[in-house]
Batch of 2 targets.
Target 1
Amino acid sequence: MRLTLFTLAVAITFGTAVQAQQATAPSSRTRLTVERTVEEGVDLLLVTAVDGGGQPLEGVVIGAYVKRLFGELVIGRETTFDDGTAYIALPKDLPPSKSGRLSILVRVIQPQDRAGTQTQIEVAGVPLAGADEPPFPHRALWASHSPFLLTTTVTVLLGGVWLTYAFVLYQVRCIRKGI
Amino acid sequence: MSANRREFLRNGVLALGAAATGAGAASLARAQGGASTGGKVTALTVEGKLVEVDAPEGQTPARALGPGDPELRKGIPGRKFIMVIDLAKCDGCGECINSCSKMHFIPPDRQWIKVLRMQDSENAAPYFFPQPCYHCDNPPCTKVCPVDATFKREDGIVLIDNERCVGCRFCMAACPYQARSFNWGHPNDPAEALAQPYSPEYGYPRKTGTVEKCDFCPDMARQGKLPACVTGCPMGAIYYGDQNEDAVTNSLGKTQPLSRLLRDRAGYRQMEELGTEPRVYYLPPVNRQYPAPDETAKEG
Amino acid sequence: MSVSDNEQPTDPRQPPMSRVTSDVVATLKPLSRGEWWGVGALSAVVLWGAAMYVNQLRHGLSVTAMNDYFSWGVYIIDYIFLIGIGMAGTLMSAMLRLTGVKWRHPITRLAEAVTLVALLVAGPIVIVDMGRPDRFFHVLVYGRLQSPILWDVFSLMTYLAGSVLYLYLPMVPDMAILRDCEMAFPAWRRKLYKMMALGWRDTPRQKQRLHRCINIMAVVIIPVAVSLHTITAWIFGMTLRPGWHSSIIGPAFVVGAIYSGIAAVITVMALVRWRFKLEAYLTPDHFKKLSLLLLTMCLIYLYFTLNEYVGGAYASGGSESLYLSNMFQGPYTLQFWSMIMIGLLIPGLLIVMPWTRTIKGIVTASVLVNIGMWLMRYIIVVPTLSSPYMPLPLKVSLIYVPTLTEWSITAAAFSLMVLLFVLFAKLFPIISIWEIEADDAHAATPATTDSRQALGGSPCA
């Protein structure tokens, strides 16, 4: 709980949300933390790998993935430096889910005994242009509702003809009544 | 440390490139992340508050919708489904047809996804060409339907309400891709299909005298699962995903960035000149990983 | 009991029946034994077709030869053919009326009646083609205005209503003649004529109103008639198929419709002339004049056909080429070239050559045109459907041979059309009595008011 509060504080500082998972680490005592940071104009994930005793782990291969509807899209792969950190660039062209969030998974790939340790971070993303727009363009003849011009044209034409019929029928009535 | 950072930044472009092609760990990721759907996650709102929300997949009902449901015609919120078929990988085995037919109880006289033998010119080698419904963004079939029985949803999928279809078959004449089939006689659905309530999202139980076609498996997508043809493909030739997420996934668990895949592999759509704007892209059959159709035939 | 027994008016108050009236009223006498046989045979065909349709309702459209490639077949061909016939009658009548052509009088009603019966059969044929006829009401409940089918439904209903009105209006004075003549009509018929006569007393005011109405309808019915066939063409033209997706298809359908419609009118005219002994009214001159109209349409249609196929043959590629080669030298060669020969060239020649421009020759040409134009519709529908853009999956072959059900229902549709026409011709005077009487009066005393002068008179207050 205390740890969670700490990461939340970090999250607010960096304008990101962090969720750490003690996860399903097969070899215990591997801990991953992720922050989102901007260095020299580049959006980065700062991943820190430490062991149970808090000692930085060097040479750990870290993979970052973004969760997609049917799978995980690879963002990048880096090896940690001697201070246990690795930087993975967050691509600019990653559209988020509908709520504007990107679920990013960071996972240890190597060494084998630490592989699978993972943590997830939720960051705000920039939606694709037009992603929210329903695919119903202005003149969509395939849409459920008829375009205004078409409705008007049909109504005017049909109305004109049937009104003429009505006038003729009125005349017929006049003939019958001998008016 | 800062030196390290700078060095990293210099290599940043390379790192991005690696994301596009170096998907080596993807299968592992898929294996690990398979159960990642559903549940709650913490997120930071625009106002700076932390809230617990449903995971994206949990936002939509996992059940297929019936014809009366108003959500049926809207589709799955925020999604724009898209398919990419890698012709270099298709060996024409027809497993996509089999798994599709099995899932949708399709009678033997029709196929929702076909595997055609394509040959662009006499001097060019033929290739296999899997063809589902293209779920066009400018669907000629939907334009001409007199009763709004076939409709285009906001998630890009074109479906048919078999309880509304009058069987005029105008849509079949209008579709330049022959994607539609008709229930000419009484359908002979198995008991398993008849036990289900009818839903346009999976298209059975079938109705006499109405049109049917590939539905892009929205019922599977609601459960976070890939369509039957995609999972059925042993070659991983068919990719499926959400265009809004710019990612497509195949049966091997490989998730690719859609826009980069189409750009790098020169993706194209069948008969672009018709202006139907299909939601199915093809990657040209270059450097094929299998013998061309006729060579297979010679061997057989 | 027969009408001929009552040719002399028994009521002294009635003016003596004119020659025209007695000639035309003679057509209303009951059917002869031979005619009953004919009606019986036609009814049997209709019943057989109805039985086949019931069978189709039971088993679905699988009893037809249609499949996922040939998704439309003989029913749609019949539909186009029938509304084609339905188009010309009224259109021709309206044009002749508006241009004040005098010789039109004996043929307008006949032509309009052909239109009406063709439309009455064309509508149901569409329902026969539907996979779910039980859901026809969906078209009205869920109708999408963007679908040309909806326009077609509206147009057909509008044209049908207009044709009924346009057929009925010039019948009013004739209904009065029938109402007033002392004939041995059954009570229900007399009541019907009385009702339909609208209390017609031949007053100047009534005449004025009637002429105005007929004139208005003649103007309005022309665009409506053109719209029906254009929209039917658009049902094909608004798809992306080779041979259909062409800008010429609308006008080509209209011209084709007028062409086949005139041929149908000439055929019916010959039958009426022969059965009803109306040689004095439907003269060789009428046939010659109509045959020249037919020839004109033949040439225009030939021109359109040339445009359609020659242009395509030069600038084509892909499925468009397949489509054309299917017709010129492929599986549809026989139908295509027979259509060209018996639908266009032979009838054209029969009319062009003066020694075959006799009633016999003209009627032969007309019958050939009717057969040829049915084939033409077959050529419009079927070869396009057998030229898909996508290659065929293995084990699929593109053959469409209509089944017995389709032929039976087609035969029933045409028989029903003839029966409806006979019903009309036995119930109402098939040629306009009052208009011909006016002609006779006009010929006798040129200065008297004839229908055309009344037409130009000042409108009623």
Note: The interface with chain C takes residues 141-144, 146-147, 150-151, 154, 157-158, 161-162, 164-165, 167-169, 171-172, 174-179 of chain A (CB under 8 Å).
Target 2
Amino acid sequence: MPRVVVDVMLKPEILDPQGKAVQGALPRLGFEGISDVRQGKRFELEVDGELTDERLTEIHTIAETLLSNPVIEDFHVHAEPVEVTR
Amino acid sequence: MRIGVVTFPGSLDDVDARRAVRFAGAEPVALWHGDHDLQGVDAVVLPGGFSYGDYLRCGAISRFAPVMTEVVAAAEKGMPVLGICNGFQILCESHLLPGALIRNDHRKFICRDQRLRIENNATAWTNEYDAGAEITIVLKNGEGGFVADEATLDMLEGEGRVVARYVGANPNGSVRGIAGIANDRGNVVGLMPHPEHAVEDLTGPGTDGLAFFTSAIKALANV
């Protein structure tokens, strides 16, 4: 069963207070040298049947209408075979 | 005059909004997110709260609630619609209003009495205020930072669509101190602070919020 991953990130010009909070915690934990942290979202969509171009186009629409808000966020869609584990 | 107030799963201020409608002299009508029915109301309030637990993004899931199809269609025909706090977020997600609301720049939830200046008193929800009036109503939000690109901001300012601005220190990082905006017809208004919590002396910082609701009644009477 194919898996499609949608990554959503705030646009570079949009302030990310959550990322700032994470970055602020790093020196307190003894981790130095991280100049910025941006926090995003990863969606994993399990697709029934074959992953056709039509299905990918549809997932693009899903990413654009629900998963992201194009006013403040960018998204990236890519297919990922389920066999690949990390 | 009948003004509907939509209840979504997670709405908090629907009861206060209905009460404010009643105090203003109109009949409040409870509307349900799952209905394709506005019950013939003359105006709609989308109340504050945490609809759908703010999952995904504030207002992102509520935007697709069945009742929103009807609200968007009615708003496009000129029906007065006021979105307060989470309601403002839903209006932005619905593309009835431009821009978006993000987490407060200082990362803390804020809850306090807030001074505002009414910048546009020609909308369906602000016509009972004097131009430039300064009012005090309640502000309570975690994601109240209004953002939009520079071109959109210049367009909003140029067309007088900034309805209210924060007076004094910026409480949440909203660009240009924007607390509320309107659509181009002025029938749809989104406001981050809560006028429905300032409609009587006993339970709020005063009665400065009441005129939002009496304004809608006046706007409807003049149609």
Note: Residues 43 and 71 of chain A are 19 Å apart (CA to CA).
